[in-house]
C-alpha cells in the first residue's frame, strides 16, 4: 500500500506539472535547462562521489562488466552530460509548430500542430546519464517525466536528481516537472506501467527481461528498445583500410553499448585479404572471434553456433560470417538483426543504395561506424532511447519523438453545408 500511495502522489504531481509545462514558452524552458546545467556542474563533486559509491558497491556484488561500464560516470562522460543539456537548450522548440498548412475547397485552412505527450515514464538500468538526458529532453518538449533508475545507480541518480531540483527551483519551475523515484522497490515498476490516468507513455531502457515484462504488462503505450544486435558488412568493392578502421571502431570503441557491432559480415571475394588483418587487430584488442566454417578456414576462431547470429554480447566477442554478396548480407541482417543499426562499407553506389533501401533497421549507414547511432551524434542533444519499434518513433528518440500532433482548423465563418 505504501508504494501505491507513493506512486499515486508522484503521478498526480506529474500530471499537474505536465499542464504547466504545456503552457511554458521556449524562453522559460531554455532558462530552466541552463539553470539545471549550472546546478549539475556545481554538484559535480557530490555526483562523482555518489557514482563512486555505486561503482564500489556493484563491483563487490560482481555486476556484469557491461553494466559496470554503463554505470560509470567518467570525467568525459560528465562533460558530455552537461554538453547534452546545453545542446538541447539550443535546439528549436518543436512545441506549437504548425506544419502542412493547406487550404481546403471549403475555404478553411487545415494543418497540424506539434504538442507534448504529457507525462513520460522512463524505466532504465545502470546509466545514470539517462537521468539528466531524459530530464532535459522531456523539459524542452513540454513533458513532465517520472524517472525510475536501477538499484545499481541509486546513489548517482539521487545526486543528479538533487541538482535538477535546484535548477528547476532557480528557474521558477515546479520541481515536480522531473521526478526521480527514490525507492528501489520493484513494485514501483508494476505500478508505474499501469496508471494511464497519470502516465501517457513508458520508455523502458534495459535488458530483454525488463523490456518483455513491461511490453507484456503495461497499460500505457510503450516506446521500446530491444537488443542492439548491430552489423557491419564489408563489400567486395570497398576501401580496405576504411573497412578495417570502421570494423575495429564499431566493435572495440565501447563494448557495453547498444550500437556496438556484434556481427561482422564479409564478402567472400575479399575475405582472404581482409580477415587476417582484422583478426590481428581484434587479437590486439582482446576480442574473442566466433566464425562460420568458411571464416574458420581463413583465421583462427571458435565455431559460431546458430545463437551467435542473434546475440547481443555487450562484450569483447564478435561473430563473423562470410557471405556471397550484398543480397545475402541483407538477408542475414533482416533475419537475425534486432532492427537497431547496420552499416555497409562499399565504393559501389548501387549496392549502397540497395543496402539503404532494403535493410529493415532504425539506422542504416554507408561507410561509417555503427557507433554513430546516438542522439548526441545525430544532433538531438541527447536521447531518451533508441527505439526499434516502427510506430510513433524509430531510432534515437529526441525532442520530436516526445511529441504528438493535433489537427488545427482556421476559418473565417465557414459552416458545413
Task: Describe this protein with a few key phrases.
417 residues; alpha/beta; seven-stranded parallel β-sheet; four-stranded parallel β-sheet; globular
Description of the molecule:
About 45% of the residues lie in helices and about 20% in strands. A 7-stranded parallel β-sheet has the order 10-9-11-8-7-12-13, with helices on both faces. A 4-stranded parallel β-sheet has the order 5-4-3-6, sandwiched between helices. The model has no long low-confidence stretch (mean pLDDT about 95). The longest helix has 22 residues, at about 1-25. It contains 14 helices and 16 strands. The protein has helices spanning about 1-25, 25-40, 45-60, 65-70, 75-90, 130-140, 155-170, 185-190, 210-215, 240-250, 270-285, 295, 325-335, 350-360; strands at about 100-105, 110-115, 120-125, 145-150, 180, 200-205, 230-235, 260-265, 290, 300-305, 315-325, 340-345, 365, 385, 395, 405-410. With about 425 residues, the protein is α/β, with parallel strands linked by helices.
Amino acid at each position: 500500500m505504501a508504494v501505491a500511495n507513493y506512486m499515486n502522489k508522484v503521478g498526480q504531481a506529474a500530471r499537474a506539472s505536465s499542464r504547466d509545462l504545456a503552457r511554458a514558452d521556449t524562453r522559460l524552458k531554455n532558462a530552466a535547462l541552463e539553470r539545471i546545467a549550472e546546478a549539475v556542474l556545481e554538484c559535480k563533486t557530490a555526483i562523482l562521489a555518489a557514482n563512486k559509491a555505486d561503482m564500489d558497491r556493484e563491483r563487490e556484488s560482481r555486476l556484469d562488466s557491461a553494466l559496470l561500464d554503463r554505470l560509470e560516470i567518467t570525467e568525459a562522460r560528465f562533460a558530455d552530460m552537461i554538453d547534452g543539456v546545453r545542446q538541447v537548450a539550443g535546439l528549436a522548440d518543436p512545441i506549437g509548430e504548425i506544419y502542412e498548412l493547406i487550404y481546403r475547397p471549403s475555404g478553411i485552412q487545415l494543418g497540424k500542430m506539434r504538442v507534448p505527450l504529457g507525462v513520460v515514464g522512463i524505466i532504465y538500468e545502470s546509466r545514470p546519464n539517462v537521468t539528466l538526458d531524459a530530464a532535459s529532453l522531456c523539459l524542452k518538449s513540454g513533458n513532465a517525466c517520472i524517472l525510475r533508475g536501477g538499484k545499481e545507480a541509486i546513489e548517482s541518480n539521487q545526486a543528479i536528481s538533487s541538482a535538477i531540483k535546484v535548477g528547476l527551483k532557480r528557474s521558477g519551475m515546479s520541481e515536480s516537472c522531473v521526478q526521480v523515484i527514490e525507492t528501489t522497490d520493484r513494485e514501483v515498476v508494476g505500478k508505474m506501467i499501469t496508471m494511464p490516468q497519470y502516465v501517457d507513455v513508458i520508455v523502458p531502457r534495459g535488458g530483454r527481461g525488463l523490456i518483455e515484462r513491461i511490453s507484456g504488462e503495461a497499460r500505457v503505450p510503450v516506446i521500446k528498445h530491444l537488443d542492439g544486435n548491430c552489423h557491419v558488412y564489408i563489400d567486395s568493392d570497398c576501401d580496405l583500410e576504411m573497412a578495417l578502421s570502421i570494423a575495429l571502431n564499431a566493435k572495440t570503441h565501447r563494448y557495453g553499448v547498444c550500437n556496438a557491432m556484434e556481427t561482422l559480415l564479409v564478402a567472400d571475394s575479399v575475405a582472404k585479404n581482409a580477415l587476417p588483418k582484422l583478426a590481428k587487430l581484434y587479437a590486439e584488442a582482446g576480442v574473442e572471434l566466433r566464425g562460420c566454417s568458411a571464416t574458420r578456414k581463413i583465421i583462427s576462431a571458435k565455431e559460431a553456433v546458430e545463437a551467435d547470429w542473434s546475440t547481443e554480447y555487450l562484450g569483447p566477442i564478435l561473430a563473423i560470417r562470410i557471405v556471397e554478396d550484398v543480397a545475402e548480407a541483407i538477408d542475414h541482417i533482416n533475419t537475425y538483426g534486432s532492427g537497431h543499426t547496420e552499416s555497409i562499407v562499399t565504393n559501389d553506389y548501387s549496392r549502397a543504395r540497395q543496402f539503404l533501401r532494403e535493410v529493415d533497421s532504425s539506422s542504416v549507414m554507408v561507410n561509417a561506424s555503427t557507433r554513430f547511432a546516438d542522439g548526441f551524434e545525430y544532433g538531438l542533444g541527447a536521447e531518451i532511447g533508441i527505439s526499434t519499434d516502427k510506430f510513433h518513433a524509430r531510432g534515437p528518440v529526441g525532442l520530436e519523438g516526445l511529441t504528438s500532433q493535433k489537427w488545427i482548423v482556421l476559418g473565417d465563418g465557414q459552416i458545413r453545408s
